[in-house]
Design a protein that fits this description.
By secondary structure, this protein is of the alpha/beta class. The chain is 44% helix and 12% strand. It contains 12 helices and 7 strands. The longest helix has 18 residues. The protein is globular.
């Protein structure tokens, strides 16, 4: 019995050492997170970039699919397929809202139903003794004539925030975090984060494309880096499996350069901390105080 007990205690360590993941992160979401077919490249879902940040103790299964809302994710059988695989100690990252609020699309889900679906997801994950993580939807690249970023998601991000607070669910506020990144890049430079291709430059898009919703490889990496930075504060047990130092996105590099060059500016490390904190809980230290 003592030998058996010893093996049970050592099993998680052996799993990491042998390269077998002991924890799985399941991703449930839409096209901004989803893995892409080769004929859609270089479009990239941010969930595709997430595995590179973790050691061998964590695997990532991306169940996100293009065009789905909370309702159609359930109706397509995607949620059942995911939840049936979840085991105690796993994590499920849930990010919807992009397609739920599009009233002209078949994916439309009224706000009350959206909340109910999210609450059901949370309950299902907890019933499996796993950890649900709610993420607000990422921003679209939509600037007005004055260069101000415009939100297109209506009440849906706030529904996610409120549900997370009411049910004590871990929240990564990608809506606010991605907005900060887009603003730091600016109107023109932020095109690099999305699927912008001139005609004749890519065989998958011979006529070119200007897509303000779906990410380029750079944009996907920026969004994944925001998620990872949030995890370091929000989920320390999972963060133990992150590789290397905290990720620093290109927008964060810009913040550091700018704050070092502005006389009397706030130190870059404080600006960086505020940005990460805002991505996690949607409130900067100054607002919270």
């Amino acid at each position: 019995m003592r030998i058996l007990a010893g093996w049970l205690l050592l099993w998680p360590l052996c799993a990491v050492a042998s390269g077998t993941a002991s924890v799985t992160i399941y991703l449930a979401g839409d096209s901004t997170m989803a893995e892409k077919l080769e004929e859609r490249r270089p479009e990239t879902g941010w969930g595709e970039k997430l595995p590179k940040f973790f050691d061998a103790g964590v695997s990532v299964e991306n169940h996100a699919r293009d065009g789905l809302s909370t309702r159609t994710f359930i109706e397509a059988g995607r949620w059942k397929s995911l939840i049936d695989k979840v085991r105690p100690g796993d994590y499920v990252f849930i990010q919807f809202g992009h397609n739920d609020g599009r009233q002209a699309k078949d994916s439309y889900t009224p706000p009350d139903d959206f909340r109910r679906n999210l609450a059901g997801f949370v309950a299902d994950v907890r019933a499996r003794q796993a950890t649900p993580v709610l993420l607000t939807p990422v921003m679209r690249r939509q600037f007005d004539d004055r260069g101000e970023l415009q939100d297109t998601h209506g009440p849906y991000p706030q529904i996610v925030r409120k549900l997370a607070a009411e049910q004590s669910v871990a929240l990564i506020d990608m809506h606010r975090g991605s907005a900060r990144v887009l603003r730091e890049y600016g109107v023109e430079e932020s095109k690099k984060l999305f699927l912008f291709l001139a005609p004749g430059t890519n065989p998958n898009y011979p006529q070119g494309i200007e897509d303000n919703t779906h990410f380029s490889p750079l944009g996907a990496e920026e969004m994944a880096a925001l998620t990872v930075d949030a995890l370091r504060e929000l989920l320390p047990d999972l963060a133990r499996h992150l590789k290397g130092k905290p990720a620093e996105t290109s927008a964060m590099h810009a913040l550091r350069r700018n704050s070092e060059s502005w006389e009397g500016a706030e130190p870059w490390w404080r600006v960086l901390f505020d940005m990460r904190r805002e991505a996690v809980i949607g409130v900067s230290p100054r607002q919270a105080s």
